[in-house]
Amino acid sequence: MKKKIITIAGKPGSGKSTTARKLAEDLNYTHFSSGDFFRQVGLGKGLNLVEVSKLAETDESVDHLVDAKVRDVGEGENIIAESRLAFHWIPNSFKVYLDLDVDTSAERMFDDLKNNPSRKASEDFNSVEEMKSALLVRFESEKKRYKEMYDVNPQDLTQYDLVINTKGNSVEKVAEEIENAYKSWLLI
User: Fold this and answer.
1) Angle at CA 80, nearest 5°, toward 78 and 83?
2) How far apart are CA 32 and CA 121, in angstroms?
3) CA dist., res. 128 & res. 107, Å (int)
4) Torsion of CA 94, 31, 73, 131, to 10 degrees
5) What is the pLDDT of residues 131-158, one digit of tens each?
């Protein structure tokens, strides 16, 4: 049975957070970000984002905590859940993947870091190149952990109902495309 939940996965910097917030506002749904929750877990341990990602490679309790939170969110309805594995934990959701090349991702995230003080506490980079390097480390760390822990590859695009490359697309256009596809999916 389909749930009134949109799960948004994708590469870092692809616009998951911005798109999820826009969709939640447009649909009057609740927004949940596992990335924000993961950052909070790291900060609670005195670790930045890269450090908590590395810790999670050897301490499965970090991912299990985040995954449990995502599963709890999946018990509700009228939710936009932004998470790399939400599509897996909430299988009856409308599953979206936002794609983007790593160079553009790093540029977007570095710009966002300068304008978002809440992220500065867990991510402190001095250049786009530093951000890109950290993104690649984080991306590979997550890919490795998810394969080892759950035998899941969130980069396998066949698992999603909709895949959008966000390069050159406004958040309004991406959100509109998701909303239209989601409403059609609900009717099928």
Assistant:
1) 145
2) 20
3) 6
4) 90
5) 898 888 878 888 888 898 899 999 899 9
Ordered structural domains, the chain, with CATH: 5-187 (3.40.50.300)
CB contact at 8 A, 85 and 13: no
Pairing of strands 79-82, 5-10: parallel
User: pLDDT tens across 84-131, in order?
Assistant: 899 999 999 999 999 999 999 888 888 877 777 666 555 678 788 988
- CA gap 13, 126 in Å, rounded: 17
* pTM recorded for the entire structure: 0.85
Q: How far is CA 148 from CA 60, 63, 69, in A?
A: 10, 12, 20
- Look-up of token digits 């790399």: 84
**Any alpha helices (H) in 74-162, and if so which ranges?**
86-89, 102-115, 117-120, 128-150
Distance from C-alpha of 24 to C-alpha of 32, rounded to nearest angstrom: 9
What's the rounded Cα separation, in Å, for the pair 178 and 163? 9
Q: How far apart are CA 163 and CA 129, in angstroms?
A: 27
Vertex 182: Cα angle to 39 and 23 (nearest 5): 45
Residue 23 has, within 13 A of its CA and on its CB side, a CA count of: 33
